[in-house]
Amino acid sequence: MRRLPNGELPNEFAARRVVSDVLGVPVKRYEGVAAKRNKMVDAVIIAPDGEMPLEVVSDTLAVYASFWAALDAIGHSIDLPAGSQSWVVQLSHWVKIGKLALGLRVLLAGLQPKPYFESDRDYPEILRRSGITGILPVESNKPRISLMSDGFSSWENPGDLNDFVREVFAVATDVPEKLFAHGEGGGHAFIWATISSKWSVMRTSRHDDSPFPAEHLALPPGVTDVWVGVSLVGHEALRYNEHDGWTRTGWYFANEIADAMPLELD
To answer: What share of the chain in percent tops pLDDT 90?
Structure first.
């Protein structure tokens, strides 16, 4: 994931925007000692009763990270000339991104602006050979091809939101440590779900009739609140704390937000 000009990661920038909008207070990038930044929290919530640290992490599997690094190299998107049809393209993990990017503009220009799914009987063979598993035409103020990766059978990945949070903290052990070290009162953790995350996370953030877990979630020491975001249009940011349990924030990703923010988050 490429950093923004100020050195901040896009997922940190976007998390600050979400938390600030929901809480109605400024959330500023933490300007700690630059040389030790990997040991500092990512941001600080400026609340009326004091500052609270915010740490941001993505749910990314190691095998997924290597493929995502190749997408990072081209910014997860390919710009198109003004007036062109924009597309979202989903790719198999074995695709050589550099080679595919060279001919993708020409390939898509020859297709009708309609959805193409690998399960379709008439799915173009050239797409299958190229490692493209799905294509969707979209509206965008900035014509481009947005590149996504296939998931990891999230339909078959059991567990609910509580399991998701526990598994993330089991890997990202430094998140509670950073929050606790910043202040005795602890702080907030923001987790970006990805296409490889549990299907229950995607469903709950997309459908407001999907129930939250009934079980209490015990947060690690140092973590007072957990936020879960999905950088897909139409998904709602979720929040958990010991007092209120899981709640919906009312903050949804929309096309105009996606166009205005650096949302290559995974």
So the answer is: 47
User: So where are the chain's domains?
Assistant: 10-60+158-260, 62-149
The residue behind tokens 């903290």 is 169
* Distance from chain centroid for Cα 211: 21
Beta bridge partners, 250, equal: none
pLDDT computed for residue 229 by the predictor: 92
Beta carbons of 113 and 43 less than 8 angstroms apart: no
What residues contact 248, with CB distance under 8 A and at least 6 apart? Answer: 208, 236, 238, 239
The pair of structure tokens assigned to 85 is 């049809």
Query: Tokens 């949070």 sit at which residue?
Result: 165
**Whole-number Å distance between alpha carbons of 186 and 53:** 7
The helix, strand and coil proportions of the chain, stated in percent and rounded to the nearest 5, come to: 35, 25, 40
